[in-house]
Amino acid sequence: MRSKRFGIGAALAAGTLAAGLALAPGAAAVVPVTATITADCGVYGGGTATLTATQDGSAATVTVTSSITAPLALAEDSITSTLTLVAAGGGTTAFTGTENPPMATGDAVTVGPLSGTVAPGDSLEAFGGSLEMVIFGLTVTCTAAGPQAPGPFVFE
């Protein structure tokens, strides 16, 4: 009889745990995860750039991969970057960091993940903001020529 009670108790405990996990809140998400813009970097060129966002609670990251090519080989984590996105309700949010993969001459310039802080419901857009990169002491500023597609990042 004792083994039946233990079996029933274990089944109830497992069921309670499973129900608790099913009701637990999921990880926060950003929608869309990927957006594109047409970037203008002045004398340094321009073209399509892809922004990829992630979110974990109030912490968020954005990685930018551009069609602009590296004029020289760049070492890993050698670019200091600030991506400023414009909030739908006004104001801006900055994503900063020194993360970048190593790049050979001619590779697409990629920076990130750049870290920032978001609040639930934040709607952030690259158009009207900028990406500022410091490479070998030179500041390269890129701006979006129009709204990002398919639309702004909305954080949960």
Number of helices, counting only DSSP H or I runs of 4 residues or more: 1
Instruction: Give the overall silhouette.
Output: globular
Radius of gyration, taken over Cα atoms and rounded to an integer in Å:
22 Å
Arithmetic mean of pLDDT = 86
How many domains, as an integer? 1
Model regions low in confidence, pLDDT < 50 over at least 5 residues: 1-26
What is the helix/strand order? HEEEEEEEEEE
Give structural notes.
- This protein is mainly β.
- The protein has one domain.
- The protein contains 1 helix and 10 strands.
- The chain has one helix at about 1-25; strands spanning about 30, 35-40, 45-55, 60-70, 80-85, 90-95, 110-115, 125-135, 140-145, 155.
- Strands 1, 2, 3, 4, 5, 6, 7, 8, 9 and 10 form a 10-stranded antiparallel sheet that branches.
- The longest helix is centred in the first third of the chain and has 22 residues, at about 1-25.
- The protein is globular, with a radius of gyration of 22 Å.
Provide tags for this entry.
single chain, 156 residues, mainly beta, ten-stranded antiparallel β-sheet, 1 helix, 14% helix, disordered N terminus
What's the arrangement of secondary structure elements?
Elements: H1 2-23, E1 30-31, E2 34-40, E3 46-56, E4 59-69, E5 80-87, E6 92-97, E7 108-117, E8 123-135, E9 138-144, E10 153-155
Question: Brief overview, please?
Answer:
Keywords: Signal. With 156 residues, the chain is mainly β. It has one helix at 2-23; strands at 30-31, 34-40, 46-56, 59-69, 80-87, 92-97, 108-117, 123-135, 138-144, 153-155.
